[in-house]
Amino acid sequence: AQTVTQSQPEMSVQEAETVTLSCTYDTSESNYYLFWYKQPPSRQMILVIRQEAYKQQNATENRFSVNFQKAAKSFSLKISDSQLGDTAMYFCAFMKHRGGGADGLTFGKGTHLIIQP
Amino acid sequence: NAGVTQTPKFRVLKTGQSMTLLCAQDMNHEYMYWYRQDPGMGLRLIHYSVGEGTTAKGEVPDGYNVSRLKKQNFLLGLESAAPSQTSVYFCASRPPGLADISYEQYFGPGTRLTVT
Q1: The predicted structure's pLDDT at residue B102
Q2: CB-based contact (8 Å) between A19 and chain B?
Q3: Maximal CA-CA distance, chain A
Q4: What pLDDT was estimated at residue A42?
Q5: Buried b (16+ CB within 10 A) or exposed e, B89-111
Q6: Do residue A100 and residue B41 have CB atoms under 8 angstroms apart?
């Protein structure tokens, strides 16, 4: 079984600053997928960014980028030029490649990110 | 195109009562999932289904049953509700395979269930 650990229960930064959220995982799988999900107060789960473990290049989506270190089993999320709308819970999640990932996602406990005006 | 919908959005049950949560998706997805989210926890998988008529246990299946009689619907049942089942329940769906972005899970809006 795999585990996902987010060691920062809560973080607070000023608007326009850059913030990095940490995520580490443990798995015996050699190929897998990693995700960051955002959950605003509306409760809706929103996919922020994804990373295929077989790709060495770090994924980026506009202001969001990841630092994927496969050997260290680390997958951090960097948010640049943070905005008030980025205030939310952020969850790191893992999915196996084996079996087509049919058996779902394993989530970390989340980081509550607060963007201060 | 409504995506993934969940019924009801809120519910309060007394201990020992039963209920069924309905998840429906209109994207013709093969795979469907039920997760629960508790305070201070991420989402944990309860049960999942890889196709009509098939179901499998996830990480926390005890106290729940599921059925997938139609491809578009995935039902989660609580036969005898307990206070420990107070949670927010999320349904999700995705197509099979790992080609390109097909493996993204689409989530419903959640159901808040309180058992007193």
Answers
A1: 61
A2: no
A3: 45
A4: 93
A5: bbbbbbbeebeeeebebbbbbbb
A6: no
Instruction: Give residue-wise pLDDT tens across range B76-113.
Output: 999 999 999 999 999 999 987 766 566 789 999 999 99
Q: Max alpha carbon distance in chain B (Å)?
A: 45
Residues of chain A with pLDDT under 50: none
The reply to whether B48 touches chain A by the CB within 8 Å rule is yes
pLDDT in tens, A34-51: 999 999 999 999 999 999
Nearest residue of chain B to residue A5 (CA atoms): B42
Query: In chain A, which residues have their Cβ closer than 8 Å to the Cβ of B31?
Result: 102
Subunit contact A104:B88, Cβ cutoff 8 A = no
Instruction: Give the three-class secondary structure for B83.
Output: helix
Q: Is B99 on the interface with A (CB under 8 A)?
A: no
CA A78, A82, A85, A89 torsion-angle sign: positive
pLDDT tier at B9, thresholds 50, 70, 90: very high
What does the pLDDT look like over B33-53, one tens digit per residue? 999 999 888 899 999 999 999
DSSP B21-55: EEEEESS--SEEEEEEE-TT--EEEEEEEEETTEE
The reply to whether residue B90 touches residue A45, judged by beta carbons under 8 angstroms, is: yes
